[in-house]
Structure formats: C-alpha cells, structure tokens
Sequence to fold (342 residues):
Amino acid sequence: MRPRETKLRAHLILETDAIDPTRPRVLVTGASGFIGQALCRLLPAEDWDTRVLLRDAHRSDCLPAELQADVIVADLNSQTGLLKACADRDIVLHLAGQAHVAAVSAEVEVNPDVRAVTNLVAAASEQKVRRIVLLSSSLAHAAETRQGDITAYGEGKLAVEAELIAAAQKGQLEAVILRAVNVYGVGMKGNIASMISMIIRGSLPPLPLLSNRVSLVGSQDLARAIIQAATSAEAKGKTYTVTDGAAYSISEIESAIYAALGRQMPGWRAPPMILYAASALAGLFSRLGLRKGSISSRTYRNLTMDNLFDNAAICGDLGFNPRDNLYAVLPEIVESLVTPNS
Fold:
C-alpha cells in the first residue's frame, strides 16, 4: 500500500499565506533524520519559504516548533507526491537516503537511493526547480577513485551523484553535491558512537595506541554548509567535501571519551592483533546471523588507517567556516548516550 499523500500544515500557517518571491522557496527531503533535524533547527533564522517531504506524518514531531514549514506526506517513489512537493519550489535540499554503510547490501539489484533521485529529478524538472543540493558521502570519493574504504554504500552514493550530474548536464536543473565525512553530534550513529556506547558498558578493552588521523564534521556545521550551497552562484555544478578542518586521532578521541565519562583511562592497551581478531570475529557472527552489530574487519581498517579529506574548496568558494570541534561537543554526545531517554 502506498503511503497516504496529503498536504498538511506543520504549525500555525494559514492557507492564504502568499509565497514571497524574494525569499528562496526550498523543499527539504530527509528533514526528520539526523542531519535533517540539524538543518531544520537553522532554517528559521534564514527566513526561507520552507516545505518538507516526509514519508510518515508522525515524523513531523521531529521538526522544531519554530520551523514555519509546509509538510507534504508522500514517498520518494510516488511521482504524484513528488510533483506536489516540488511545485513552486526553487531549490531542493535532498538529504533523504541510506545513512549508514551497514544498511546497504551489495546484492540489491536496484539501489533505492538511485531510484529515489531519478524520481525526484523528474518531478523537479517538470516543476521547474532551479537547483538540487544533494547530501552525499566521502565514501563516494573512495568508490570514484578506487582508493581507500570502498563499500557498496559508497558505490551507491556515487551512482546517485551520477544520476543528478547527468540531469544537470542535460540542462534540466543545477546540481550541487556535498560529500560529508563522518558526522558527529547528539543522535549520531557509526563507529565513534559505537565506541562510546561500548566504553560506557565496559565492553571495549582499551584500544592499541593508534597514530592514524581521520576527518569529521559536526552536524550543525554540515547544516550550515547545506544552506550556503543552496544559494551560492559559485556552487553551481560543484562537488565539495565537507569537514570541520581538524585531523582527529582515534587514540585521542578514546581518551576524550573516558574524560567525558569522568573515568580514568586504563593503564594498559590491547595488542593490535587482539583488536583485529575481535573485529573479524564480530563481523563473522553478524554475517552468520548469530549476532547483530556494526563491528567487523572494516571497523579495524577504519580504526587503523588514515581517512583525511581537504575542505579547502568549500571554504574558498562558499566562505564555509566550521565552528564546531568534536572535543567541544563530545561531553553532550556522551551524556545523551549515558541517559538516552532523558
């Protein structure tokens, strides 16, 4: 059964409200997700004419009360719903899609994210949308260059990018692609969140002393980058990598987690071989269906290899200036995981 396609008012907005042509008219997909919520917290200050597309009307509860937005409830596979959502919009901020590597299977014949962006491009083109800003992943870079962490997830993101670029090359609309590195903030998922949770439970032995460095970006900074990319003339047709500009050490992150918990860092560290064996065994159990989890031999690679990216292009072109740093935000992240229901 297709999701119900209805037009709602998220908050107290009159049906007679006119659209001011001097304000950007934007549609946000994925507004109820981790990054989408960060974006929606910033949009009220921009005073844009905002509409959001949700699959589930109940997810409108995730939107901040101050966001004055239309809500369209429809699926990205429904062309009727997409045409409604894209009507009279200038810009689409496309954040919806698979957000984590573990959620993507290499055996899927047709990537649902590719199908979704194909549908979105068709509707946006028909409704004369000027620009789509696509939130992608730095893992698309690995898939594109065949270097680094090559995953089915990254291949899928690259395929989504290609679909949008093809439409832009045909003159259907403008495309801007933002490749985000791993994102931190309250509500984050992924390896660092798993590390924090395991340290809280006491189920993660002290990691080996690791010298690798990784790039990260805060959810609020990423939301600011999306806003800048939406209206910048310089961004047209560009693909940018988004980081906060810092190079983080996994060992330093581990120490900071212990400090945020008010715990003493153990005086011993596990040998690298123990970490590798434990990660590989956890991955095997997960593949066999004996245990659910995101830990695998890939986790070991990510914990021991450099994964650094340069944000000079987006800083130079758009004036992007990251404000957040993982270590400043970490106590709040840790507190949210210690008391998840508070």
Notes: The CA atoms of residues 215 and 308 lie 5 Å apart. Residues 1-21, 280-291 have pLDDT under 50 and may be disordered. The two ends are 36 Å apart (CA to CA).
